Hints:
Blueprint: H1 42-45, H2 51-60, H3 80-89, H4 94-106, H5 111-118, H6 122-141, H7 144-148, H8 155-161, H9 167-180, H10 184-196, H11 214-231, H12 235-248, H13 252-264
Helix pairs in contact: 3-4, 4-6, 6-8, 6-9, 8-10, 9-10, 10-11, 11-12, 12-13
Amino acid sequence: MLSLTINTPNPLFLSTPFLPNHHHHLHPPPLNPHKPPKPLSVSALIIPPSSSTSQTQQKVYQPYRPPPSPLPSKYRNLDTNARLEILSNRLGLWFEYAPLITALIQEGFISTTIEEITGIPSLEQNCLVVAAQVRDSLVEFTDEETVSYFDGQGAPDILYEIRILNNTQRALAARFIIKHGFERKKAEELARSMKDFPRRYGERGWERFDGNLPGDCLAFMYFRQGHEHKTASSPELSMGAWERALEMAETEKAKKIILEDLEGKDGREAKVVLV
């Protein structure tokens, strides 16, 4: 009778001279061992605030301070009805009550409502507000005597016309207006000529006029008009324009070129005198 004997194999062991002398089972290690996370250094995550950030925070927490009021001090504490009454009766100087219009508009009034209550037309309201701003710029860029010339009731119309100029040009134009006693129309021509002069670069005679002088700018405009009339065969109009140009010109170079045109007209010598 046959009998079978099964020998259970002993577990295999690995040995190598490169490993310590102990047994290693053949069971493979886990593929993705879970290692405990490394502790984060909190100090590495803290970014010290920059100086600009701290300054911003300081600005945010500063108490609000309203901008200074454009109103004269005597009008600042008046209620709405009192302000409307001042405008209705035009109490005080025009440049003092003109900012009341702006204040009322900021309160929610519209120009037509102000016109109905005070009798000041919408166009005049705009003129007063703009002229007051121009006058304020003159306070900074010219002398007190020049500024005080525009305290009268006709001044807003004149100052409104020079609004298109920069502050330096306004001061020059204001003194020229005073010197020649200009009204609104002449002030408009003066401002337009000063604004337009740089754009005329390269035109006939342009280099003979000084763009930094109001009189030369105005003279150049009349000088150009004289040649336009000449092209249109209007000698009388040309002569009149050149005579106005000669009267307004401030530099000798400008006067000379104008006089050349006057003397060359129909071969006659103009009866004009340089001043």
